[in-house]
């Protein structure tokens, strides 16, 4: 399936009540990326022409050809942000930095970028409702498999997590002046993803490397995240939502289901913690030399070695009215199919 605004992953019918209630105009950051592009396509399919911040309007990636108003610029461009949010009814903030070689790099992309957006909203769209898409990394891992809830005291363990928490604090500084909500997804998977994709790729090659020790995980189907973001626009102000599957899964079991749905046989290889740390240090060094797409860095190794990246989501999903989540087995089947159709993974029907 080649998803587009004509054939979006999330059908407008599935989110009709939320879309109809969206205050307009709709302004989006991160709309050319993984989650944001699916969100944009759903809105366009519903007849909404969102404004989308684009660093390079000539190459809007997944949303090329979609009926959107592209606003040239980035989160460090006050003029572009002013144009993006001017008179907006809602602002959906999905942009951010996932990979950086230093703490300062994460801070610039996540905290400073969000602070710039918040200032623009205060000045140009004070009646807008802001939905800030953060991350479970902002609150940190859980000591128990059951996970952390939205009201847990944040304890991020990585530069990325600390920068996402700092970005949340910039949003909270709006107080009651501007309506806002924070959505914290865990690991998100689905078509167009390049992070959880690494597990698909390892499974496809027959060996999945995992850190030693028992680990539980909460995951989120990208379509369910899109639904949650749209639902949060109409929710109460000043609320933090945890989204994702209702029950955590043992990482070994997730790999097993991943292999089954892909029709592959993959064995798990345990990687000692010191080796994960060493590989992360090498990755960080290469990142500083310009290899910015490397998945494993020193910062990422800290997250990989944490015990449980699990989240308590039931109360948030009930408050949002986001029901009937996509089961991981079904989501994985769809994702395998997309990766193979796009040539990211081998098409075993042809090999």
In short:
By secondary structure, this protein is α/β, with parallel strands linked by helices. It is built from 12 helices and 14 strands.
Describe the structure.
The chain is α/β, with parallel strands linked by helices and 351 residues long. It has a domain at 12-189 and 219-246 and 310-326: NAD(P)-binding Rossmann-like Domain (Rossmann fold, 3-Layer(aba) Sandwich). The chain is 40% helix and 15% strand. It is built from 12 helices and 14 strands. It has helices at residues 16-20, 34-45, 78-85, 103-124, 159-172, 197-205, 222-233, 251-262, 273-288, 298-305, 314-320, 328-341; strands at 26-29, 51-54, 69-72, 90-93, 129-133, 179-184, 187-189, 207-211, 216-217, 219-221, 239-242, 249-250, 267-271, 308-309. The strands form 4 sheets. The chain has a 7-stranded parallel beta sheet with strand order 3-2-1-4-5-6-11, with helices on both faces. Helix 2 (34-45) links the parallel strand 1 (26-29) and strand 2 (51-54). Helix 3 (78-85) packs across helix 4 and helix 8 (251-262) packs across helix 12 (328-341). The longest helix is centred in the N-terminal third of the chain and has 22 residues, at 103-124. The mean pLDDT is 92.
């Amino acid at each position: 399936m080649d998803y587009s605004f004509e054939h979006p992953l999330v059908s407008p019918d599935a989110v009709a009540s939320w879309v109809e209630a969206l205050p307009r105009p709709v302004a989006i950051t991160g709309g050319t990326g993984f989650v944001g592009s699916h969100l944009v396509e759903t809105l366009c399919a519903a007849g909404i022409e969102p404004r989308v911040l684009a660093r390079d309007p000539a190459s809007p990636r997944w949303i090329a050809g979609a009926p959107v108003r592209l606003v040239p610029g980035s989160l460090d461009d006050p003029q572009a942000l002013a144009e993006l949010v001017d008179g907006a009814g809602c602002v959906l903030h999905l942009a951010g930095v996932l990979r950086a070689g230093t703490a300062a790099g994460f801070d610039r992309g996540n905290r400073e970028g969000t602070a710039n957006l918040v200032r623009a909203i205060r000045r140009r769209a004070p009646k807008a409702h802001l939905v800030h898409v953060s991350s479970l990394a902002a609150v940190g891992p859980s000591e128990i498999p059951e996970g952390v809830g939205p009201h847990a005291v944040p304890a991020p363990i990585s530069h990325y997590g600390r920068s996402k928490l700092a970005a949340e604090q910039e949003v909270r500084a709006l107080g009651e002046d501007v309506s806002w909500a924070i959505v914290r997804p865990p690991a998100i998977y689905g078509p167009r993803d390049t992070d959880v994709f690494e597990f698909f790729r390892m499974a496809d090659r027959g060996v999945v490397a995992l850190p030693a020790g028992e680990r539980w995980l909460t995951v989120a189907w990208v379509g369910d995240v899109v639904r949650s973001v749209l639902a949060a626009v109409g929710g109460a102000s000043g609320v933090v939502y945890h989204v994702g599957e209702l029950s955590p899964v043992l990482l070994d079991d997730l790999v097993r289901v991943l292999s089954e749905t892909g029709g592959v046989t993959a064995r798990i290889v345990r990687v000692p913690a010191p080796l994960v740390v060493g590989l992360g240090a090498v990755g960080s060094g290469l990142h500083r030399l310009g290899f910015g797409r490397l998945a494993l860095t020193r910062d990422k190794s800290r997250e990989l070695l944490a015990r449980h990246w699990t989240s308590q989501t039931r109360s948030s999903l009930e408050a949002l009215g986001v029901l009937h989540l996509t089961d991981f087995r079904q989501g994985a089947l769809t994702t395998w199919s997309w990766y193979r159709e796009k040539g990211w993974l081998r098409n075993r029907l042809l090999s």
